[in-house]
Structures are given as structure tokens and as C-alpha cells.
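Sample 3 of the quickstart, ligand magnesium ion:
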Amino acid sequence: MITCCIFDLDGVLVDTAKYHYLAWAALARELGFDFTPEQGEATKGVSRMASLDIVLRAGGMENRFSAEEKERLAAEKNARYLEYISRMTADEVLPGVLAFLQGLRAAGIKVVLGSASKNAGVILDRCGLRALFDHIVDGTLVSKAKPDPEVFAKGAELAGENPAHCVVFEDAAAGIEAAARAGMRSVGVGGSPLLGRATMPLPSFEGFTFAELRNQID
Ligand code: B16
Ligand code: MG
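Result:
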């Protein structure tokens, strides 16, 4: 039985990874080194401060800054990221997502957000998605980053649903592991080979329906 679907945001519903990357790369440039798109892959699904550590390591600067200076660098990156996402529109919702979410609501399935981002609210508002969610769990509500199951466990709890009846949609390996640790099935969105532990892969939401989800994993 499936009664609740929990969605990661970045990389699943919208492609904000490119904005995260541009903002981190600009910070790296200011610090005097290049941060490549390949290196940027490792920041996907990872918290803001853990992402900063990845960036600093790429420039050989992991031990250069105090905790206070790191907070300032992360705030600088976030200000740049906010400039990008504050210009987002509904056109940036990934193909097939809207129809799938609407289909879930029509079928009476709970729709929950489970994102590590502290900026999830801005993105949902800009893209006109907020009204489709019954509950929103974002980086402001959780203290433990994926692969800790906290974000998804909290989503199920808010929705009043049994984790065994929840399905998580994720594009990052840490998120697939978090779902498993929360006792939930998962859909690995985007087809990365790193998502092999997901209950099922889903290259894109285009044409995908709740009936098909049930056929495949229920
Ligand atoms: P913020 P998700 C994650 O969102 C991103 O994938 C990751 O790249 C980012 O560092 C993290 O949110 C924190 O984001 O700086 O906006 O709080 O994939 O869990 O929706
Ligand atoms: Mg993600």
C-alpha cells in the first residue's frame, strides 16, 4: 500500500543544482581557485556547511578558515544563490512533475516535501508548487543531514502516515539511504548509477503516473 509520497526538492522537482554550482564556483573564484562541475556533483543533497567543506577541500583550503569565517563564506554563497532562485519561474519545474503531483492529490495520496535546503520555501513559492504540498519539511526543521532519516521520518510523522506506506523520491545517494533507514521505499530520480539502491529508477517524471508507481513497487 502507498498512502504518502515524500519528495526531495533540488534535482527531483526543480533543477536548482545548477544555481548551487554557479554560486559555489563564484565563491571558489574569489578564493583564487576553480571549482569544476565534476567537483560540484559531490555537493548534491549535502547540507550547506558540508558543501562548503567540499569546495574548500577542492582548493586545498580545508584548514584555512575559522568556524566564524566559514559561516561568513557560506552566507556569501547563499546570498548569490538567493539572487538566482529569486528569479525562478514555474517554467523551471522539471517535465512531468506537475501532472504527477496533481495525480497524487486526485488519488488522495499525501504529498510531502523532504528537502535539506533552507531555501525550499522560496523555491516552492517562485515555482507555484507550494499549494500542492500537504506538509513541508526543509532544512530549517531538521538538524541531521541525509543519510540520516530525520527529514523523511518527520515528513511521515507530520502526515500521520506509516513509513512502510511512504515512498521517497530522491536524486542523491544519501537520500536513497536516508529513505531506507526511515523504513521507506524509494524512487531514484534522474537515472544516476549512484542510485542503484533505490527500490526503482525513474529517468524522468514525463508520462509517469501514480498507477504506474503502484504497478512497479506495490
Ligand atoms: P541550502 P535537496 C539540497 O537540497 C541540495 O541538493 C544541496 O546541494 C544543498 O547544499 C542543500 O540542499 C542545502 O541547501 O543551502 O539552500 O540550505 O536536494 O535536499 O532538496
Ligand atoms: Mg536532491
